[in-house]
Amino acid sequence: MKILIIEDEKKIAKYLKQGLEENSYTVDIAHNGIDGLHLATHENYDLIVVDIMLPGINGKEVLKQIRNTGIHTPAIFLTAIDSVNDKVNGLDIGADDYIVKPFSFSELLARIRACMRRRTDNYVSNLKTGNVTLDPKTRKVFRDKQKIELTPIEFSILEYFMRNPGQILTRTMISEHIWDYNYESFSNVIDVHISRLRNKLEKDFDKGIIHTVRRVGYVLEERD
């Protein structure tokens, strides 16, 4: 598997490259956003690890431009910026995960494996709950005949709900499914994403489809 690391701190980049190559990954490095964007859009990678604070072009803009070209390579932000708003924004831009420095290398490896599992799962059939339909293959969502545009994280959360209809999903379960780890720092992020997901699914319809189970979590089900 080939990984692109976009990281301006050379010691960290060298450490990541060595550790990943010891785990049988092939690694390319870019030390600024301009070179990173060029490599990401001209070479084929299985995963991109990108810092946010980069010279030339910052990491968020790099990922925006990558996604705007239609490239859906899994991407992980690896950054010292740790506010909830930054995490939400980074995931909304199109990152598959968000890791805050300082980090453990074993955690990074686990997150990389989780990203690849999510991307390689071969789901074929459509999922349907009430009048909501989700196609895992084309990543399209409809409620009745209305197409619902979702961010990658919102799509992943909805898919998880739709594979477990009627089951109460706790914040811990959702965080472990989406990010492969359970961290309290992700609790508010999950609530924000579910609030936005609800708004997109329910704003033009009379009935809700995602319901809060107080002090427990959330459930997806059609109710009278």
Summed up:
Keywords: DNA-binding, Phosphoprotein, Transcription, Transcription regulation, Two-component regulatory system. The protein has 224 residues and is an alpha/beta fold.
Task: Tell me what the structure shows.
- This protein has 224 residues and is an alpha/beta fold.
- Helix content is 42%, strand content 21%.
- The protein folds into 2 domains: 119 residues, Response regulator (Rossmann fold), CATH 3.40.50; 94 residues, Winged helix-like DNA-binding domain superfamily/Winged helix DNA-binding domain (Arc Repressor Mutant, subunit A, Orthogonal Bundle).
- It has 8 helices and 12 strands.
- The longest helix is centred in the middle third of the chain and has 16 residues.
- One of its GO terms (molecular function) is phosphorelay response regulator activity.
Write the SSE topology.
Blueprint lengths: L1 E5 L3 H13 L3 E5 L2 H10 L4 E4 L8 H10 L6 E5 L4 H10 L3 E4 L4 H16 L6 E3 L2 E4 L4 E4 L2 E3 L3 H11 L6 E2 H9 L7 H16 L7 E4 L3 E4 L4
Parallel strand pairs: 1-2, 1-3, 3-4, 4-5
Antiparallel strand pairs: 6-7, 7-8, 8-9, 10-12, 11-12
Helix pairs in contact: 2-3, 4-8, 6-8
